[in-house]
Design brief:
Chain lengths: 300, 308
């Protein structure tokens, strides 16, 4: 802040110097990342995310056609007013299926991220606060899980357990919490050295209360930002596993499994691949933008 | 340094034990009876006597720890058991796929590095200029585009619409192009961003302003000081990206029918051929752990100040 203000005062002098102009430009860029603008960005993307979430919740009432109703006379039909995104090989309305897919993908991705965040933060705080054997056990488990490439483990677990929604969530959640646990532990370890924690303890607060009232609010922001960044990854993992046939099973409308199903007749009906693909892409992009804005706000 | 290498190698042992334990557990938690799965995978009629005999042969009547110990003992001799499906040794199957996966993953890795390193450095130097925004926008798109979607879109336009590439890769060099690009692009998009951040962190330090004030040329500072200092973090990022690459190869290989480990794993999952899945997971995890170890050693070589 200080640097920017200083430069504004000396505007006249700097303008004379050609070489300094480039620095001005840089500073103007820095101003772009200042808090009020970032705050506006966050509100804007939060609004978009909320919109997506509402659409996903209201999907059953928004669909123009029955997403599961097959129609032999409209197989692989091109987009038309009646079927905005065309139909697939069974004559099902793709627009309706994409909407219904939004419900599964967005709702369950948010749920999974939420659950892993809470579980990971809890374990991380416990490990960092108590140290000793808790810390050892939890962190060795984290190390073990992080030894696997994440997607490889998810594929193996979902594959061995045999697909399906619950197993997919399990497979993705198995490694998901480790991120928060590691972060929370690190932060708690450094917070523990602070004087206000010692003061809280000396005033007779229990460990549980110190963790809940004094430590948690201090690390919650960081955890939420990381969770926001994770939503996009989770959406992709979700769709990826379904695409491989390890997630949501076929008649159910889900973006990944729709793409997988339609890739066989892409030549005749490219819209059957492109519509769910675009929906996935846009959703991931919006969540990523929100995550970026949030992490800019936190100054990382 | 020597001491450090030995220490890291010793630390590797519990890590690998952990990996093998989790992988063994994977088979253990799988629904159903392994003996029955093996018999039905081979197409043998399952009767009570045959089942009991197979169970004994496979050692399923012994306690869990003993089973794990036996399995580990065989594993240490590079014996991953026999495939349920056709009875061939698992390591033979893995060895066949390994070469193909290596070619694909190494190609994608080199491509991603060759693209993202220069672009990452360039965008850092040109921070907040038009070119920086353009490249970052493309990287943003690449970040939001899952590799399987990219693979299919590329396939549609380049293979079906204009017939430039074969749809099925099947070992030819021309067929390798699309899978490599599909695997490398999302990775490169992420790397550009991360390299940019790593270089920017150095560019914004006081020693750079100091050197500039003393009249040292920008290019000299960039190549002699900034990059040198940013290199350890860049190497770490590259090491971590190998994990994404190994996971992504499973998806890409099954789309392009590339006969590598990922396709083998997917086929084995369909066929419920658990020993092959186990072998695949162990191989991938060990590769990843070794790569991470090498990156850590590399970082230490590049920056002797790093401790622990």
């Amino acid at each position: 802040m200080c640097r920017i203000k200083g430069n504004c005062k000396d505007k006249g002098r700097i303008k004379e110097n050609c070489k300094e102009k480039s620095r001005m430009r840089e500073n103007r860029g820095d101003e772009k990342t200042n808090k009020s603008l970032v705050r506006k960005r966050i509100i804007f993307f939060l609004f978009l995310v909320l919109l997506l979430f509402i659409i996903s919740l209201l999907a059953p009432y928004l669909v123009p056609n029955d997403p599961y109703g097959t129609n032999a006379s409209y197989m692989k039909a091109a987009p038309s007013p009646e079927f905005p995104f065309g139909t697939d090989k069974l004559g099902r309305c793709i627009f309706s299926r994409v909407l219904m897919g939004a419900r599964l993908s967005i709702f369950f991705s948010l749920l999974l991220v939420m659950v892993t965040m809470v579980a990971g933060t809890f374990l991380g705080v416990v490990a960092g606060y108590y140290g000793g054997i808790f810390d050892n056990i939890i962190m060795r488990l984290v190390d073990m899980l992080l030894a696997f490439p994440q997607l490889v483990l998810a594929i193996a677990v979902a594959g061995v357990l045999g697909g399906g929604m619950t197993n997919m969530l399990l497979a993705l959640g198995l490694t998901g919490w480790t991120l928060y646990a590691r972060l929370a532990r690190g932060q708690v370890m450094s917070l523990k050295q602070e004087e206000f924690i010692a003061a809280a303890r000396l005033s007779g607060n229990s460990s549980l209360r110190i963790m809940a009232v004094h430590i948690l609010p201090n690390i919650a922001g960081e955890m939420i930002v990381n969770a926001a960044i994770q939503v996009g990854t989770t959406l992709v993992g979700f769709a990826g596993l379904s695409f491989l046939g390890l997630g949501v099973q076929v008649p159910e409308a889900e973006w990944g499994s729709m793409i997988n199903e339609a890739k066989g007749y892409m030549q005749q009906a490219p819209w059957a691949v492109l519509a769910p693909g675009a929906a996935l892409f846009i959703t991931v992009a919006v969540f990523n933008l929100l995550g970026d804005a949030l992490s800019d706000y936190m100054g990382r | 340094m020597k001491k450090y290498v030995v220490k890291r190698l010793v630390q590797l042992i519990p890590m690998i034990l952990g990996i093998t334990f989790l992988t063994f557990l994977l088979l253990y938690i799988s629904p159903g009876d392994p003996a029955q799965k093996r018999l039905s995978a081979q197409g043998v009629a399952v009767t009570k006597e045959v089942l009991a005999q197979t169970r004994e042969e496979m050692g399923l009547d012994r306690p869990f720890i003993k089973q794990y110990g036996d399995w580990l003992f065989h594993l240490l001799q590079a014996d991953l058991g026999l495939s349920y499906k056709d009875g061939t040794p698992v390591n033979q199957k893995l060895a066949r796929g390994m070469k193909n996966t290596f070619v694909l993953a190494a190609g994608a890795f080199l491509l991603a590095v060759a693209v993202s390193l220069p672009l990452g450095i360039y965008t850092a130097v040109r921070k907040n200029r038009f070119s920086d925004y353009c490249i970052r926008f493309i990287c943003f798109l690449g970040n939001a585009l899952p590799n399987f979607l990219l693979a299919i879109v590329l396939m549609y336009f380049l293979c079906i619409r204009i017939n430039a590439f074969p749809v099925i890769a099947k070992g030819s060099l021309q067929g390798l192009f699309l899978p490599t690009v599909a695997l490398a692009f999302p990775l490169a998009s992420r790397l550009v961003r991360q390299v940019r951040v790593a270089v920017l962190k150095q560019l914004e330090t006081d020693y750079v302003s100091g050197a500039r004030a003393r009249g040292v040329k920008k290019g000299y500072i960039l190549f002699r000081n900034v990059l040198h200092n940013a290199l350890p973090s860049i190497v770490t990022l590259l090491g971590l990206s190998v994990g994404t690459l190994l996971g992504g190869s499973v998806v890409i290989e099954s789309i392009f029918m590339w006969p590598g480990l990922g396709k083998l794993a997917m086929d084995s999952i369909t066929a419920r051929d658990y020993p092959v899945i186990q072998g695949f997971v162990i191989l991938m995890a060990v590769t990843y752990v070794v790569v991470n170890l090498l990156t850590d050693l590399g970082c230490r070589l590049l920056d002797p100040r790093i401790k622990e």
